[in-house]
Specification:
With 123 residues, the chain is of the alpha+beta class. The protein is built from 1 helix and 8 strands; from the N terminus they run αββββββββ.
Length: 123
């Protein structure tokens, strides 16, 4: 009896984790713009946009003071972690942890410096 209960709870727990990971992967697709960094709004002429595409491709665009730069790379979603690498530099990875995600809001924490960023999805 106890084994059946534990097995049932394990199946429910694992099923919930799989559904959550799949939901997160679907919600992550699209272009996100940083609206807060450590609880503060960025300067008016500063913008960071990150586009997550299917097949693990991504593009980050930054603009500040009339100058802009963009970088392409890859990412993979492992549970609540987004592990990314720049194009041409697959040996160096960056990890951010998803704190929360909805259809239009993403809050992440950098795994190294623990800085939090809030992003909104572009329509």
């Amino acid at each position: 009896m106890m084994f059946a209960l534990v097995a049932g709870l394990t199946i429910v727990f694992v099923s919930g984790r799989i559904a959550t990971a799949a939901d997160n992967a679907e919600k992550l697709l699209g272009t996100w713009t940083v609206v807060k960094m450590d609880g503060k709004e960025p300067p008016k002429d500063f913008e960071i946009a990150v586009e997550f595409m299917k097949e693990g491709k991504m593009k980050m665009t930054m603009s500040f003071g009339g100058k802009s730069d963009s970088q392409e790379g890859t990412y993979k979603l492992e549970g609540d972690k987004i592990i990314s690498s720049k194009k041409g530099d697959k040996d160096k990875t960056d990890t951010i942890v998803i704190k929360s995600i909805t259809a239009d809001k993403l809050v992440v924490v950098d795994d190294k410096d623990k800085k939090e960023m809030e992003l909104v999805k572009k329509k």
